[in-house]
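User: Some background: our group keeps a shared notebook of sequences we're curious about, and every so often someone picks one and asks for a predicted structure to add to the entry. Today it's my turn. The entry only has the sequence so far, pasted here. Could you supply the structure so I can complete it?
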Amino acid sequence: MAATRKIKYLIIGNSAGGIGAAEAIREVDKTGTITIVSDEPYPAYSRPLISEYLALPCPVEKMAYRQPDFYEKNNIKTLLGEGVVQVNPDKHTVKLENGTTLGWQKLLLATGGTPIFPEMEGNRLKGVFTFNKLDDAKAIDGFLNQHRGRVRAVVIGGGLIGASVTEALLKRNVEVTIVEMKDWVLNTILDEEASVFEAQALVHAGTNIITGHTPEKINSYLPGEVSGVTLDDGRVLPCEMVVIAIGVRPRLEVVSKSGIKINRGIVVDRRMATSAPDIYACGDAAEAHDFVYGENRLTPVWPNAYEGGRAAGLNMAGKPTEYQGGTAMNALKYFGVYIASAGLVTPPNDSYQTLINRYDGIYRKVIIKKGKLAGMVFAGDIEKSGIVYNLMKDGVNVRKFKEVLVADDFGLASLPESIWKDRLESSPPEGVPVVTSIEEPEELVIGD
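Assistant: Of course. Here's the predicted structure to add to the notebook entry:
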């Protein structure tokens, strides 16, 4: 079917980045047609809350990322449950799975990420799951509801996804073993010392943790069903279900043959524009500016997706805007332990300075290069971590007061007067999330 008329703003993706773009567009253009296409059949929801859905389960309505009338109030047409299979930059069209072709004037690729699914024997058995979206949580919930008796699970991967699904499974009285190939859990967002806080909490909650090993195959004693996992050292872990939580990779299939420049993700400039005219990208699928590294990197974090989407939307609507950049940032609470990190968690070489303070079960660490913050790790008490993050994001030179950043009594008043006054007097652009303190960190977990 040929495209009849071109949609002014076509957004592929209905999560943080896509919503941020749509809101920004409507700030500039009140009438231009906006269509959001998503292969998920649901209105926008908070992906970090899928663990709560599985644990309780939490009603889907409470997971809503925006109010039920969001699309109607903003005059946004939605095509939900419709996947995109091809982008044609030259013709300004996209092709949907159902064969429909849509024409557009401006296009945003907010396609998100897809779970890394390793090739191993048994990975297609009944009882093998990923944990990246609401349907994954629903599938696991259905499996648990149908299974009689004790359920044992092996979670492959001890990162954010692995910890999140483990907490939910434990609340469902599932026995969980985490298998992590690196030497400590949450190794991408925490240094080894801070990781101990979380590992101890996991073990105390009843989790078995195996580090430094990888699974070789998923076993099946009953035809088509999971019965265990064999590790690289020959050990067999009996289980009825397996959750693959290794991580996510950018969803690039729709642009793989489009000619749009791709590295690890879709390459964008500071306007979030791709190499193709009138096409933008944001969120997990895009390689955007990282202010710590000073270069484009994948930073699959929910707030970064939203802010990147806003920058893209403003530019799509004709308001020149530069994305200020993001970096790895995670603030969360698993098993009662508050942890927060951003930027580097381990200095890569001796040119960085590290300051650490340990006291009363609290851990604070900052990493500094040339007087500016390059990373932070807080565990136990993270209430003031947002102040440190904003100093890092704003590129403030902290050389003269760096020691106070990890002090027992650190707070806004600990900063030089000229700096804390700026913190209080400045306000972010309307609609842009800002981290000044972290009171509900579980709402800030990655990832779009």
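Suggested note for the entry: The first strand starts at residue 6 and ends at 12. Residues 427-448 have pLDDT under 50 and may be disordered.
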